[in-house]
Amino acid sequence: MGVEGRPVVGDQRPAARSRHAVARRPVIQPAFVTGFQASVDWWKIDISDAITQLTSQQLVDRCVAGDASLCQYVIRAANNDIVQIDSLFINLNNQKIEGYDIEVGYRRGMEIFGGGAESVGLRLFGTRLMHNITQAPGGTPDEQVGQINLGLPKWKATAVLQYANGPVSGSVIGRYVGSGILDRTLVESPVAIAGVTTIDNNSVGSAFYTDLSLNFRPQALEGLRV
């Protein structure tokens, strides 16, 4: 929906009423593999009257999709053009978030090149988002997992490989963001459909990013704190 350039107003901050959170964290750290550790965190959060600030695009999309409770924030002129969007902090009826984190780490000292105290470390951690459901008063539950435009991919993962040798250290970091859809309120179609907001391609592919770093800390600066 074309909302670019429309005034957006936001100023109120209602209070949350209650929150219920559950988390479980089994950890594996076998004695026969020095430096190895793995863990899985499962978490589930259920908030009544959750405070959130929906984006202007979310407000318009959900109003058009039939969520009448949010249409009050989309101000239209007599010709039905949008003239203002009140992107306020609102109390949603409920918000439920559930997922789990996986982490695997390994670090140990070893001698590869010599010349100083050497160590190698590998860390892998990822998040699987299972649910992120919001519901405005009088509205229907809105499952947002998998919408890349909201920053809610189902899978995110990071791998870090580190090496240190005395004052020299370096790392390679890889970041993965899973595929998803751009906006679930849009209908994917190569041609226009009357009364429906369409998009040629609503899919967003996965992405992988790589960062490299190299650090050197002279012995003369050991113990220096700023």
Walkthrough of the structure:
The protein is 6% helix and 50% strand. By secondary structure, the chain is mainly beta. The protein has a domain at 18-48 and 95-221. The strands form five sheets. Strands 2, 3, 4, 9, 10, 11, 12, 13 and 18 form a nine-stranded antiparallel beta sheet that branches. The longest helix has 9 residues, at 56-64. The N and C termini lie far apart (50 Å).
- Largest sheet descriptor: 9 strands, antiparallel
Quote the distance from N terminus to C terminus: 50 Å
Order of helices and strands: EEEEEHHEEEEEEEEEEEEE
Beta-strand percent range: over 45%
- Give average pLDDT, whole number: 82
Taking pLDDT < 50 over at least 5 consecutive residues as the criterion, the unreliable ranges are: 1-5
Report the structural category.
mainly beta
Share of helix, binned: under 10%
| Total strand segments | 18
Radius of gyration: 24 Å
- The tally of helices reads 2
Coarse shape: elongated
